[in-house]
Amino acid sequence: MWLTNSSIGRKVIMSVTGIALILFLTFHACMNLVVLFDGESYNTVCEMLGANWYAVVATIGLAVLVAIHFIYAIVLTLQNRKARGVSKYAVTSKPEKVEWASQNMLVLGIIVVLGMVLHLYNFWYNMMFAELVNGGMPFINEVQSASDGAAMIAYTFKNPVFTVLYLVWFAALWFHLTHGFWSALQTLGWSGKIWFNRWRVIGNIYVSILMLIFVAVALAFAFCGGCCAA
Ligand code: HEM
User: SS in 3 state form for the chain?
Assistant: First the structure.
């Protein structure tokens, strides 16, 4: 099948899964925005996304998307390296027009994945997984209920090491997503001379807004324990 056998097909798979993940992130950012205003409302959303069958199905779907995106990223990178062959050693200067993020998508992707592992441990493991296997009690003693997302966020960002690690993760995500956004649209054919630049600007603004929401949550809880939500 051309989707899996050809280089362009694989890029289409990367693009579609990438866009789906950006849509998830949009939902997640909107959800997190709530915690800046009202902790109780945030916990109501967390309860809806707890150990309910539809939330578990969505989590499995999300995990499949991430796995496909990640595996194809590695396949495409290896394929590109192979195609370049020995000639890559002959190149001493980097092309000026190629973005830094474009050349470092795999490294950025690895930081993104490491941050995701930390994040899933902090939140998914102590919330959804705890609800599924631990009778609604998180594995962290300081937080009383696995659906108390606001308390879990306060617990996480009270630790400055976590705050710094999360900020590094957000920065890597910003580079990864701003490049991925227009690159995906270009692969899918929504591009021309004029639209190439327009998509870049739209993507940069869109991704910046998403990431600023995550940064705002982290900093609000790091510096005043989410005082605005209390
Ligand atoms: C300040 C930033 C963030 C906070 C406070 C936060 C908070 C949370 C919380 C509370 C949950 C558990 C929700 C529940 O099961 O009820 C969660 C799950 C999750 N978060 Fe985040 N998140 C943040 C940033 C991110 C980012 C940047 C990503 C992706 C790049 C992400 C990906 C996920 C994923 C994949 C899950 C699991 C979703 C599922 O179980 O279906 N989060 N997050």
Answer: CHHHHCHHHHHHHHHHHHHHHHHHHHHHHHHHHHHCCCHHHHHHHHHHCCCCHHHHHHHHHHHHHHHHHHHHHHHHHHHHHHHHCCHHHHCCCCCCCCCHHHHCHHHHHHHHHHHHHHHHHHHHHHHHHHHHHCCCCCCCCCCCCCCCHHHHHHHHHCCHHHHHHHHHHHHHHHHHHHHHHHHHHHHCCCCCHHHHHHHHHHHHHHHHHHHHHHHHHHHHHHHHCCHHHC
